[in-house]
């Protein structure tokens, strides 16, 4: 019998075809000629073999004639998860790639972010980044906004309205000697963080949650870090920040926080490492520090695209997690060339990082990340044979090969439909 939770709600639609996802036990599970039903709450009601159509239709009260059949070269996969996006940086994506991190922040990022007090400008940029990432299959995004509370609330509204699952953070920074007009006082940061959290929670957006967001240790005093840790604990909220992204940054953190044993210890001392913490980058962590973070159950980003890459240039090269998949595979091969004992990542493992792994990093895997009964249906309907797409199929291929082709060659033209919490999201005019 199919995996199901019983007819607790009405079935909204049923698909028949191939479903590909990851589980705790395996990075890649392929379900061929399966039925998947989504209820009116947007949750997966059942998954079963097509041969069970009659019994499933009787149990769940839908007509077999209403089942939607996927085409030969189509499949469903979980939505992509971007665990670290600086939404305001989208306004200059693809430019400003000429400086190391700290110089880059001062010359480009902070001046641009200061413009987001203008809500018209914020509306324009934030609408574009949410639309673009959705079109590229990002169903869940973890966003850094700016220090401006109202603009950050606007980003949350836009994500919810367009149908993207999101964590949104009002950035906190009470220290910025380079761009002095772009910072807060300690009290302003506390007050505005609390206002942001209260107003966002009061909106009761079904898809968006607040995340406490100290930008990084260099932009926050120890007092503010401690207060933000207390705010997160009081409200049981997610936390996001940066760690060990740049050698100069690591050195300065050591000078500013001499009482701490490491960069990791700075966050630990201020109660910012929890099972809901996401730390971006971690390029220069020792094995000991990585182990410490793992013991504290804080998680680093698994795959993200709008982040400063390890080469410390710019704010990202693409709106697509598919590009992050390819860069990850390429870099893994480079590491193997440098050290033959290094085990190269497989495309199956990177597929899991981009889907279930991302949801786990954000502590959202109880709701999304794969096709388990009871989870929200966050999914991409992919057609690798799309007429205007970049993939040429020479012959009929098995589903595993089709997935690999999509991950390595595909783009938004191959994404036929995007679902978040069971709802087909906009904007799509395919």
Could you walk me through the main structural features you see in this protein, from its secondary elements to its overall organization?
- Its cofactor is Zn(2+).
- One of its GO terms (biological process) is guanine catabolic process.
- Keywords: Hydrolase, Metal-binding, Zinc.
- GO terms for molecular function: guanine deaminase activity; zinc ion binding.
- Residues 76-425 form the Amidohydrolase-related domain.
- By secondary structure, the chain is of the alpha/beta class.
- The chain has 2 domains: 11-78 and 367-426, Urease, subunit C, domain 1; 80-319, TIM Barrel, CATH 3.20.20.
- Helices cover 36% and strands 21% of the residues.
- The chain has 12 helices and 17 strands.
- Strands 7, 8, 9, 10, 11, 12, 13 and 14 form an 8-stranded parallel sheet that branches. A 5-stranded mixed sheet has the order 1-4-3-2-5, with helices on both faces. Strands 6-15-16-17 form a 4-stranded antiparallel sheet, with helices on one face.
- Strand 16 (415-420) and strand 17 form a beta hairpin.
- It is globular.
- It starts with a strand and ends in a 6-residue tail after the last strand.
- 48% of the residues are buried.
- Mean pLDDT is 90; it is low at 310-314.
Outline the secondary-structure elements.
Blueprint: E1 3-4, E2 11-21, E3 29-39, E4 44-49, H1 53-60, E5 68-69, E6 74-78, E7 80-86, H2 101-113, H3 119-135, E8 138-144, H4 149-162, E9 165-169, E10 171-172, H5 186-203, E11 208-214, H6 222-235, E12 238-243, H7 247-256, H8 263-269, E13 277-281, H9 287-295, E14 299-300, H10 321-338, H11 347-361, E15 379-383, H12 399-409, E16 415-420, E17 423-424
Helix pairs in contact: 3-4, 4-5, 5-6, 10-11
């Amino acid at each position: 019998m199919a995996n199901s939770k019983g007819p607790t709600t009405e079935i909204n639609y049923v698909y028949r075809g191939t479903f590909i996802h990851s589980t705790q036990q395996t990075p890649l599970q392929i379900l061929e000629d399966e039925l998947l039903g989504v209820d009116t709450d947007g949750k997966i009601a059942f998954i079963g073999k097509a041969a069970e159509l009659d019994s499933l239709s009787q149990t769940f009260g839908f007509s077999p004639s209403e089942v939607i059949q996927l085409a030969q070269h189509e499949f469903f996969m979980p939505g992509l998860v971007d665990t670290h996006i600086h939404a305001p940086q989208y306004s200059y994506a693809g430019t400003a790639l000429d400086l190391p991190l700290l110089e880059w922040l001062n010359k480009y990022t902070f001046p641009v972010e200061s413009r987001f007090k203008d809500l018209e400008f914020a509306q324009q940029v934030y609408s574009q980044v949410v639309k673009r990432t959705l079109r590229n299959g990002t169903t869940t995004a973890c966003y850094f906004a700016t220090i401006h509370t109202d603009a950050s609330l606007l980003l949350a509204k836009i994500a919810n309205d367009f149908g993207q699952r999101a964590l949104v953070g009002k950035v906190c920074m009470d220290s910025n000697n380079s761009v002095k007009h772009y910072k807060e006082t300690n009290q302003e940061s506390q007050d505005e963080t609390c206002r942001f959290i209260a107003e966002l929670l009061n909106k009761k957006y079904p898809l968006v949650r607040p995340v406490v967001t100290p930008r990084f240790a260099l932009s926050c005093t120890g007092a503010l870090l401690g207060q933000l840790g207390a705010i997160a604990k009081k409200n049981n909220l997610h936390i996001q920040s940066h760690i060990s992204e740049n050698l100069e940054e690591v050195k300065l953190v050591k000078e500013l926080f001499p009482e701490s044993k490491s960069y990791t210890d700075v966050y630990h001392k201020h109660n910012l490492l929890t099972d809901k913490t996401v730390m971006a980058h971690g390029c220069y962590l020792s094995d000991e520090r990585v182990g410490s973070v793992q013991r504290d159950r804080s998680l680093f980003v698994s795959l993200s695209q709008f982040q400063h890459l390890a080469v410390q240039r710019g704010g990202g090269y693409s709106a697509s997690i598919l590009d992050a998949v390819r860069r990850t595979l390429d870099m893994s091969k480079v590491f193997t060339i440098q050290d033959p004992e290094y085990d190269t990542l497989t495309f199956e493992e990177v597929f899991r990082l981009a889907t279930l792994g991302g949801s786990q990093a954000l502590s959202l895997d109880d709701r999304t990340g794969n096709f388990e009964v009871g989870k929200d249906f966050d999914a991409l309907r992919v057609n690798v044979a799309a007429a205007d797409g970049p993939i040429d199929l020479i012959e009929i291929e098995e589903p595993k090969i089709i997935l690999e082709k999509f991950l390595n060659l595909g783009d938004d033209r191959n994404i036929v439909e995007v679902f978040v919490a069971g709802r087909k999201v906009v904007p799509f005019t395919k």
